[in-house]
Design a protein that fits this description.
This protein is mainly α. It contains eight helices and no strands. Helix 2 packs across helix 4 and helix 5 packs across helix 8. The longest helix has 28 residues. The termini are far apart.
């Protein structure tokens, strides 16, 4: 347990930020950080992982997207809680941006774990293809191609959801 506490002291801020950006709720991110601690403490794989931060990030993503799957029908969070909203825009623009972000994150729950992780690392965490490639033991070109395919799948999911909404069905 002391190793995990030390690890979270060093990397907890990064992991909390990731959880917050995926859930868009600070209270949920705090709860998931506790769950993350318990999951890391309960497994030996964490201590023997080639890259403990990558392992912890993967567990955090699973927790966050599992939460999002369970709460996908939840209402749009308040604009004040959104880091992604441009504060120079009108309130209406902020609401639209918040709804679009919710739609994208909800659609990501329909992707495979790998595709969800790649898109999160590159587009939400703003990591370069090179950094992601080092973590996954692949070349930057392979990661770029995988991200491109994952993005195409996400667009297809968003398109399907948009078509269902136009027909009056539930997403």
């Amino acid at each position: 347990m002391p190793e995990i506490v030390e690890f979270l002291d060093e990397h907890g801020r990064i992991l909390f930020g990731l959880l917050y950006r995926v859930t868009l709720r600070e209270d949920v991110a705090e709860d998931l950080m506790q769950d993350l601690f318990l999951k890391l403490d309960a497994t030996e794989k964490f201590l023997t992982a080639r890259c403990p931060l990558a392992y912890a990030r993967r567990v955090a993503l699973h927790l966050a997207f599992d939460w999002r799957r369970k709460h996908s029908q939840a209402s749009t969070p308040q604009i004040a809680d959104q880091q992604a909203v441009d504060h120079r825009s009108s309130p209406l623009d902020g609401l639209i941006a918040a709804e679009q972000l919710q739609a994208v994150l909800n659609a990501m729950t329909g992707l495979s774990d790998r595709n969800c992780e790649l898109l999160t690392l590159h587009y939400i965490e703003q990591q370069s293809y090179e950094a992601i490639a080092r973590e996954h033991g692949k070349t930057p070109h392979q990661i770029r191609a995988l991200c491109h395919k994952a993005l195409a799948q996400l667009r297809a999911l968003l398109s399907e959801t948009g078509q269902e909404a136009k027909r009056g069905g539930s997403p």
